[in-house]
Amino acid sequence: MTEAPIIVLVRPQLGENIGKAARAMLNFGLTEMRLVSPRDGWPNPDAGPAASGADRVLANAQVFETTAEAVADCAHVYATTVRKRGVTKPVLTPEQAAKDIATQQGRSAILFGPERSGLETEDVALARAIVTVPINPEFGSLNLAQAVILAAYEWSKHCDLVQPTLEEELPPAPQEELEGLIAHFERLLEPKGYFLPEARAEATRRTLRGVLTKPRWNHLEVRTLRGVLSAFGKTRREP
User: Fold this and answer.
1) Is residue 162 part of a domain?
2) Claim: this prediction has a pTM higher than 0.85
C-alpha cells in the first residue's frame, strides 16, 4: 500500500481551522499533518476543541518555517488552488490526484493555503500538479476544513476503511424460523379465504413464500413479524 499523503497547511491563520482540518483528516484515515509558519504559533489552544477527538493528529503535527522545508522529503507535491496565471502545471481533480498518489512510489504531500488568500505563487511552484475542485463559479468559497475533507475522502476510496454502521448486522434467520413465519401467515389467512379458489391455492402459497423469503429476515425481524401476526389474531378486549 502506498503511504498516505501528508497534509500541509501553509501559513494557517486560526487554531480552530487547524483543529477542524485534523478532524477531517482522521475521519478518512490521514494522520500526518505539517504546518508552515502558523500565524498564531503552535501549539494553539483553539485547535484541540475543534479537532473533536483527533488529538493524535495535532500532537504529532510538525512545524516548518517554509513550504520548501515542509515538503523536502516528498517526491510528489500537489497544490490545492485555482489555476494561476503564469503557472503551467497539470490540473487535477481531487479524485485524479488521489488515484495518482495511490499508484506512485514515494511520499506525497497536499498543500493547502491560508484561509483568506490561498497559496502564493512561490508555494505552487513547488508542486508537480494543481488540484482544483469543480465548484460553482458564482460562489467558490471553500473553508480550509472543507478543502481538506474533499482531498481526504478521495484518498479514502483507495483504502480499506470500514463502513460505519449504527448497529451490528445480524445474520439471516435459519430456515426453521422462516418456515414458522410462513406457517403463521397461512394459519391466519386460511380462514379469511385468501387461498381461494382452490385451483390457485398452490400458486398463491408459492408466491407468498417467495415474498416472505426474499428480504433475508434476521432472527429479530422474524420474531417481530410473528408478534405482529399474533396481535392481529387476538380479539381485542373492550375496556
Assistant:
1) no
2) no
